[in-house]
């Protein structure tokens, strides 16, 4: 099922494409939350803190994988918009071959660097071993993450956001079942959560591949396409590397923030972990809007329709602002009942709640600037501009780093929590200004020669 996003009313097209992505992203977060909820309730609060303390590292390595594979598929989206059927197939084959190489490198580096990285992040001694076990399993199974994201991105590149959702829902349900089997039945602890995540995501990758092979001939390369081509490799790496680095740079900032949170002890880490899981859940609408704009802008850029891209950006910004206000109110209301899901009855919630409330209350005020980042950044990336979105990540890193170091030097937890809003404000301003520049640059390129 393909979707041509170069036709129809922009807002209607965008919202229709976004909804399945939103549902899929929510399920993605739910099965990530399943790890922490089941670990927290079936093992201990310290085990929950151990899994939570690796969240920013997971964002680094998984985000890098997501970024580079999403970059590889931008070329596919542009060629689909330009009606270049053979070019689409070449880009698919080339992206798969490049992903194999990137997976080998990324897995090796992750496994080698994990122990010193956890020490650098001030991981508390009482949760260090569990944190190391969990993140090493995730790192070892990166191949499943890379190829699930690659195949899903290929489907989205040609306008199909429904099928990745179906496989993701299946995977989320399977992940919860495996969590319960490995942790509650076989008592595998945090290692069981890691194995459940990798196995369920691997099954999603296989299902996506089978669907593409059987039902999506436009994405099925032929024998002549299976070789690395200099032109495609250069184009895909030019888009993929900046997107991967942008994720990595943003993740580096969140790791510095996590280091600031870690100095307040395992109770603070556990409460922060639970609160951030709720926040990540409600952020998925913003992320889905960004994913939509990457495909929307890619197809319309391939067609050469800048006016339609601008209309889509305005529509998505309006929708994102409404969503940001709604979910800000939602997290304030749901924090207390949701926090109890992560802990057993013997945990003193009066100790956990102040840490969680401080983080959520500070962040929720700034959801509107956060929502703009995804629209501007993904629109630029969809049009093939990778450097400026990456520099938006640098602005996030700088803001988080400055605030985190001040927080650590003053031992201020509220200031540590403000790392996220500071990053959102900086990146929102930078990407908004960058989008104006990119829009003018595209207009010059598309202007007829005089």
From TrEMBL:
Q: Where in the cell is it found?
A: Cell membrane
Q: Which UniProt keywords apply?
A: Cell membrane, Membrane, Transmembrane, Transmembrane helix, Transport
Q: What is this protein called?
A: MATE family efflux transporter
- Single annotated GO MF: xenobiotic transmembrane transporter activity
Fetch the InterPro entries from UniProt. Answer: MATE_fam, MdtK-like, Membrane_Transporter-Flippase
Q: Which PANTHER family match?
A: MULTIDRUG RESISTANCE PROTEIN YPNP-RELATED
Which organism's genome codes for this protein?
Hominifimenecus microfluidus
Q: Which residues cross the membrane?
A: 12-31, 51-75, 96-117, 132-151, 163-186, 192-216, 237-261, 281-301, 313-335, 355-376, 422-438
Q: Which GO terms describe its cellular component?
A: plasma membrane
- How is this protein positioned relative to the membrane? Multi-pass membrane protein
- Could you tell me the superkingdom of the organism this chain comes from? Bacteria
């Amino acid at each position: 099922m393909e979707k041509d996003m170069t036709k129809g009313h922009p807002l209607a097209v965008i919202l229709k494409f976004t909804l399945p992505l939103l549902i899929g992203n929510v399920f993605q977060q739910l099965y990530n939350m399943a790890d922490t909820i089941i670990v927290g309730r079936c093992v201990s609060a310290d085990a929950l803190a151990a899994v939570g303390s690796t969240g920013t590292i997971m964002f680094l390595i998984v985000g890098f994988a997501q970024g580079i594979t999403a970059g590889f598929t931008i070329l596919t989206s542009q060629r689909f918009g330009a009606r270049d059927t053979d070019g689409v197939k070449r880009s698919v084959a080339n992206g798969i071959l490049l992903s194999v190489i990137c997976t080998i490198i990324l897995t090796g580096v992750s496994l080698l660097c994990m122990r010193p990285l956890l020490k650098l992040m001030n991981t508390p001694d009482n949760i260090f071993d569990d944190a190391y076990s969990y993140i090493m399993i995730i790192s070892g199974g990166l191949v499943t993450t890379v190829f699930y994201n690659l195949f899903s991105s290929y489907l989205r590149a040609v306008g199909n956001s429904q099928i990745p959702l179906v496989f993701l829902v299946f995977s989320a349900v399977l992940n919860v079942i495996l969590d319960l089997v490995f942790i509650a039945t076989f008592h595998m602890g945090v290692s069981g959560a890691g194995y459940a995540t990798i196995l369920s995501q691997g099954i999603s990758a296989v299902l996506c591949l089978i669907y593409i092979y059987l039902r999506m001939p436009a994405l099925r390369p032929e024998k002549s396409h299976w070789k690395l081509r200099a032109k495609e490799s250069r184009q895909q790496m030019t888009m993929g590397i900046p997107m991967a680095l942008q994720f990595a740079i943003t993740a580096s900032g969140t790791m510095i923030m996590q280091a600031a949170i870690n100095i307040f002890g395992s109770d603070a880490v556990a409460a922060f972990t639970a609160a951030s899981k709720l926040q990540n859940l409600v952020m998925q609408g913003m992320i889905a809007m960004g994913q939509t704009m990457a495909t929307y802008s890619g197809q319309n850029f391939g067609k050469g329709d800048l006016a339609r891209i601008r209309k889509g950006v305005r529509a998505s910004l309006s929708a994102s602002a409404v969503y940001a206000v709604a979910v800000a109110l939602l997290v304030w209301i749901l924090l207390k009942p949701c926090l109890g899901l992560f802990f057993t009855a013997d945990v003193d919630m009066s100790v956990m709640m102040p840490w969680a409330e401080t983080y959520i209350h500070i962040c929720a005020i700034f959801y509107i600037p956060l929502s703009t980042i995804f629209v501007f950044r993904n629109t630029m990336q969809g049009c093939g501009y990778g450097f400026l979105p990456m520099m938006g990540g640098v602005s996030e890193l700088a803001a988080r780093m400055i605030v985190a170091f001040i927080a650590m030097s003053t031992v201020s937890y509220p200031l540590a929590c403000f790392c996220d809003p500071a990053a959102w404000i900086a990146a929102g301003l930078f990407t908004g200004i960058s989008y104006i520049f990119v829009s003018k640059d595209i207009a010059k390129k598309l202007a007829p020669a005089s």
